[in-house]
């Protein structure tokens, strides 16, 4: 299948690519609309938007975060919107091991990650972007938008949630380490599923949480820790 021709350098689409590549240093694809490549400068945790909002409330400082609209980027029209929270490159590969260590295992199938070889829609530009980067006319607003926008010159690798020596709360303006962020995200994904089941939203919208694990309403040790039912010394 032939690729769409690369836009004229003065076109809005070219301005989008220049802004992401030159101002932020993030590689893009030549697809239309523009997509960002994950696994190089950053990875992204992906979760339902209702859970993601709770995560952002609990962590005022994270990496950039973007709303992925329902029915876009491969989502079906009836799917729920998603939140993508940026983490350091390589974090997507660590996610399964972190979930196992936190004793969540298969209980959070709706918490995934995009890493090496993946991509995401380039969100509509945040306030303060150059006027020539206005996204009208090529569909960026239809796919994704910034909830917590990036800051040029700030989103370096060591300012995103990661693991290893030096990672932890208090570093980089209070950005959480990856384990704490995943623990919070897993808990909120699980809590959001409980709320949806209680309110009957799945049945009313023709959506179902069945098939997302054998124990959709079970609590892991990690969730009990967050709820305070295990010793405080074991709570993240």
| Structural class category | alpha+beta
Query: What number of structural domains do the residues give?
Result: 1
Instruction: Choose one word for the global shape.
Output: globular
Please provide the count of β strands: 7
Q: Roughly how much helix do the residues carry, as a percent range?
A: 25-40%
- Strand-residue proportion: 5-15%
Question: Which features does this protein show?
Answer:
236 residues, alpha+beta, two-stranded antiparallel ribbon, 7 helices, 7 strands, globular
Tell me what you see in this structure:
It is a single chain. With 236 residues, the protein is of the alpha+beta class. The chain has one domain (12-228). It is 29% helix and 13% strand. A five-stranded antiparallel beta sheet has the order 5-2-4-3-7. The protein starts with 11 loop residues before the first helix and ends in a 10-residue tail after the last helix.
Topology:
Elements (H helix, E strand, L loop, with lengths): L11 H12 L11 E3 L5 E6 H10 L6 E4 L13 E6 L3 H11 L10 E3 L4 E3 L18 H4 E5 L29 H22 L1 H4 L16 H6 L10
Antiparallel strand pairs: 1-6, 2-4, 2-5, 3-4, 3-7
């Amino acid at each position: 299948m032939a690729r769409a021709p690369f836009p004229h350098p003065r076109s809005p689409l070219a301005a989008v690519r220049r802004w992401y590549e030159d101002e932020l240093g993030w590689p893009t694809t030549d697809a239309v609309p523009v997509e960002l490549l994950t696994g190089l400068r950053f990875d992204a945790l992906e979760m339902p938007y209702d859970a993601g909002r709770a995560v952002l409330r609990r962590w005022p400082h994270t990496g950039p975060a973007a709303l992925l609209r329902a029915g876009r980027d491969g989502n079906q029209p009836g799917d729920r919107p998603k939140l993508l929270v940026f983490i350091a490159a390589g974090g997507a590969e660590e996610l399964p091991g972190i979930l196992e260590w936190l004793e969540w295992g298969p209980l959070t199938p709706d918490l995934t990650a995009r890493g090496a070889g993946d991509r995401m829609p380039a969100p509509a530009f945040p306030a303060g972007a150059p006027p020539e980067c206005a996204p009208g006319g090529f569909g960026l607003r239809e796919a994704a938008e910034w909830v917590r926008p990036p800051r040029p010159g700030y989103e370096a690798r060591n300012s995103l949630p990661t693991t290893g020596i030096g990672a932890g709360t208090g570093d980089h303006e209070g950005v959480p380490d990856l384990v704490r962020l995943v623990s919070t995200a897993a808990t909120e994904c699980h809590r959001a599923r409980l709320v949806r089941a209680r309110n009957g939203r799945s049945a009313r919208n023709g959506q179902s949480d069945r098939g997302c694990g054998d124990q959709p309403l079970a609590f892991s040790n990690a969730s009990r820790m967050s709820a305070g039912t295990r010793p405080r010394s074991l709570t993240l």
